[in-house]
Protein 1
Amino acid sequence: GNSVTQMEGPVTLSEEAFLTINCTYTATGYPSLFWYVQYPGEGLQLLLKATKADDKGSNKGFEATYRKETTSFHLEKGSVQVSDSAVYFCALSPSGNTPLVFGKGTRLSVIA
Amino acid sequence: EAGVTQFPSHSVIEKGQTVTLRCDPISGHDNLYWYRRVMGKEIKFLLHFVKESKQDESGMPNNRFLAERTGGTYSTLKVQPAELEDSGVYFCASSQRSVGGGSPLHFGNGTRLTVT
């Protein structure tokens, strides 16, 4: 079946530190991959996406590259800010009209 | 444009009671999804409406859950009778086209349900 595995949190970093949140997936076919972010008190927002192998999604300084050979979509940011504190969800959309499959989420806390 | 709105934001009920959650999608979005996140676990799909029709309800846990979308606008999710394991955050999301078609999901802030 389809599944997403994220690194366990919480992750606590100092401001300007480098961030990596690991995400690997299992899927049939060629899924699209997403990172969603949930800021405190808000709903989930799409952060970035990639729809085919070797695509790189990027937004707000975050990047993730669709690696088919390692079935991964790790989220990275070179220098985190306090405002990046949130819960990050990796997700996949299997090919066809099937619903998103989410990981468990990783809580990130950035301290000044 | 107004985003996806959910009501209530929080609900605390006793086991055996009934609760109805409401979701107003973004105007013009035919696709409406319900998801649930139990504490510390994945966000799990519950069901998908296209307009007023249930496209996929494979994620509905059991027959205590009833979802409707009369007229293809807002949707309700009723839990009757509620059990302790129903506690969690219920998210609603909408999109113009289906997710498989590459259309992004717009999420509401969620309803936090606590069953005691």
Note: The radius of gyration of chain B is 13 Å.
Protein 2
Amino acid sequence: DGGITQSPKYLFRKEGQNVTLSCEQNLNHDAMYWYRQDPGQGLRLIYYSQIVNDFQKGDIAEGYSVSREKKESFPLTVTSAQKNPTAFYLCASSMGDAGMSSYNSPLHFGNGTRLTVT
Amino acid sequence: GEDVEQSLFLSVREGDSSVINCTYTDSSSTYLYWYKQEPGAGLQLLTYIFSNMDMKQDQRLTVLLNKKDKHLSLRIADTQTGDSAIYFCAERWMDSSYKLIFGSGTRLLVRP
């Protein structure tokens, strides 16, 4: 079955350490996204990538970094510069925009990684 | 601005209908989506509507779109306890990113 796999489900780190969250998809989707979810809040976009070897900052990119070396993979690194890293992180993918406003390209989500930094 | 707004909480009795409301911002939005999130899980796509439609029905789900007021609603008929979750509406942003902008979510509680 095709889908998006995020690992691990729970991650614990000490303050000051960088940590990398994994996201892999076998849906053959061009676009991939990282969102952050805090309790009682909606999803905020961290980074997105519409094609391999290219990515753009979202609304809250500070303290995070990404890479997109393969179509299937979009790892997110939470650096020590991120002031409040404890959150639920969601990875998503879509077919991409195809450059057409009428193109339906819903996001498909992984099951998330809950990161706790102490 | 980019705010998509939803009420935070809705409580209904099992078997009743639930109506979850959302207001969005971009008058040129093309697709609007409803997602469901169960505890500790990712978001599951429930349904979507294209902006040239007023209504879309899919089994127990009915989506209504009022473009003039930028208002979107999701009606769940015969609500069951398994429908208890957080529901997010999202609009497809019509700049070069085509990203989705999400509301803060409505927590639906279904009482037996």
Note: The two ends of chain A are 36 Å apart (CA to CA).
